């Protein structure tokens, strides 16, 4: 009998690609999403790719009673992959209470339901933002967690602490926190991809929207960072590689291969690319000259972050396979598919 997996935020960018990867591995999936930053159209894209429609529940995880009712209805859930969260650094600086409520209360209500299950498996969508500006690059999992640069980053730090504290006392709970670096790209079919509502908060959709003329020009925040070209450096990982990592981590939980009931893994490529390098790569794969301007630094941004992926490579037997060019090419294909749909 196949395992039934709850994916919260399963119609979001990373969640939807992970749902596809799970279904292709034979897992049954139930999605929770309140559609606050996603679209029901994504469910059609998932079904189109996998030829199978996951179950879907429109639930706001901030509603404690609704979460309880969900678990009463779906008592056979074998594991939870928790993506549902607000994730824009700039917005979190402007509206911290929204982020603390949305990112922490939802986690707590899920864990309260898992507390009573005989054997609970939990994967947490965390972030390299927990490291802040690391003292050494590349960043290993043993790097100190520093004071967060933004409320968003703080919710990821506190979220990990909440899970770890519960794993210490709940022997029925096994959890893995996956610290992503910068997910980009889209499914090769262009049936699903990154779908920001309103003005994009992330670099790649802003680039692709600028390239098709939806945005006038791209703002590059700061060119005075201590990097080779003066712009920020990040580790950009293809969302398909990231989705595959969630399946591998889930299989580790199910097969009870953990060395302790709480583990942490970095997910990245191990290579850093600057904002200008990303722009150059995009122009190469798309053939489009991208209009951009240098503006002042953005609050909450750090200089550089890229992963040491040794632990994920060796323990999970997982490695990022797709290049920056691959990711940008797929993101461009996705953007063009969106434009065709709108015509």
TrEMBL record:
GO terms for cellular component: cytosol. Its EC number is 5.1.3.2. GO terms for biological process: galactose metabolic process. GO terms for molecular function: UDP-glucose 4-epimerase activity. Pathway: Carbohydrate metabolism; galactose metabolism. It is an enzyme of class 5 (isomerase). Its cofactor is NAD(+). SUPFAM superfamilies: NAD(P)-binding Rossmann-fold domains. Residues 6-329 form the NAD(P)-binding domain. It comes from the Bacteria. The keyword ATP-binding does not apply. It holds the Pfam family GDP_Man_Dehyd. Keywords: Carbohydrate metabolism, Isomerase, NAD. The keyword NAD applies. It catalyses: UDP-alpha-D-glucose = UDP-alpha-D-galactose. NCBIfam families: galE (TIGR01179). Belongs to the NAD(P)-dependent epimerase/dehydratase family. Homodimer. This is UDP-glucose 4-epimerase.
